Amino acid sequence: MGMGTRGEGTRGARSGQAELPKRKPDLKKLWPQVWALVAPRKWLIASGMVLMAINRVAGLVLPYTSKSLLDGVLSPLHPHPERLLRIIALVFSAMVVQAITSFSLTQLLSKAGQRLIAEMRRQVQRHVGLLSVAYYDANRTGTLVARIMNDVEGVRNLVGTGLVDFVGGLLTAVLAFLYLMHLSATVTLTVFTVVGAFVFVLQYGFKQIRPIFRERGKINAEVTGRLTESLGGVRVIKGYHGEEREAGVFSVGVERLLQNVMKSLTLTSALSAASMTVLGLVSSVVMWLGGHRVLANTWTLGDYFSQTPPAKRVA
User: Fold this and answer.
1) What are the pLDDT tens digits along the chain (315 aa)?
2) What does the alpha-carbon distance between residue 147 and residue 145 come to, in Å, rounded to a whole number?
3) How many CB atoms lie within 10 A of CB 180?
């Protein structure tokens, strides 16, 4: 038992030493590895970008047609009921296009991302299997198992829908911004000033949240690894009457994981509350400025309602 304790202490010291240097990743060194993953699938990603662009443009049809519906079809002064069927057909067609492109993106990119994750797991397992015995002395077997299975999940942001969704969000924001600037530069710049100020709050919040989520993955791997080893060596533990000790270690790990989750929930809820406050402020600004323009007959009701949905979408 003394030898086991000494071995665990040595292993913990080694792992502690291995965790000391925390340097920021060098993008120049990482880029060849990233490109090696992306290059064989560049045409797949390009196809996904095209589908994403079609999907996002189709998603803007509904707010765009609100002006024509209110000013051209439902106008009490000059109604045009014959245009109603045409607008309904356009909106329905756009929704069908969205449904088809969303399904195609999932089939095209999400499955490709899962295949890449499976291949990465094979490569990581092969690499870890070739490492020296000293590496296994400094890292628990269960922790390595958890890292091999979970750490590669991040590659879906490169090949899966993560990258496409990010670019799609930028495209939607740009198209909405241009459309809103066409309607009113004053209202648009006022709204984006408020949103721009909120970006700094988001930047601070993400700086606080990212380390917490990284730490959660590490804690989860350690707790899962220790639990895997203790259950796998349960006969040895029972032989040395170490049940209470293992229960205590597991309890400490679970408590660390709980505290980590509590921190993330607090920050996430704070950011959610802040975003709802900003959304309310943006809506109020649009209602105030847009309402005055409608009363001054510089805007129609269609202009007002076509301005409001994109502003909420961007916010």
Assistant:
1) 443 443 444 444 344 434 444 455 555 666 676 677 777 777 888 888 888 889 888 888 887 787 778 777 777 777 777 888 888 898 899 999 989 988 888 788 777 777 878 888 888 888 888 888 888 777 777 677 777 777 777 666 666 667 777 788 888 888 888 887 887 788 888 888 888 888 888 888 888 888 888 788 788 878 877 787 777 777 777 777 778 888 888 888 889 888 888 988 888 888 888 888 888 888 888 888 888 888 888 877 777 777 664 444 434
2) 5
3) 21
